[in-house]
Amino acid sequence: MPSNFHLLPQDAQLIPPVCCCSLCGCELYRDDELYLIEEQVLCPDCLDVFATDYFRHRRFTAAELKDTPQL
Q: With contact defined as beta carbons under 8 Å apart, do 36 and 21 qualify?
């Protein structure tokens, strides 16, 4: 066993989060997946919300796209 084993928390609830999601505030721990976009930390659950807002100016209907002159 490592010599510092006794220093590690035995209860997972005692391990502090590394960071929090910028949108929902959920705590993210060492092995949690996250996204770092424009200096914002995002949990996987908030990625869709962020992307929808981030790309809102590029959102079209198929009819609008069809009627848009090609560049």
A: no
In the numeric block, which tokens belong to residue 34?
């996250």
Summarised one tens digit per residue, pLDDT across range 46-61 is 999 999 999 999 999 9
Two tokens at 39? 């200096």
* CB contact at 8 A, 34 and 27: no
Spans of the chain below 50 pLDDT: 1
Longest Cα–Cα distance in the chain: 69
Cα(23)–Cα(35) distance, rounded to whole angstroms? 12
Tokens standing for residue 30 = 């060492």
* Structural domain 14-67, CATH architecture: Ribbon (2.10)
Q: Which amino acid belongs to residue 33?
A: E
Identity at 68, one-letter amino acid code: T
Residue 13: both structure tokens together: 């609830």
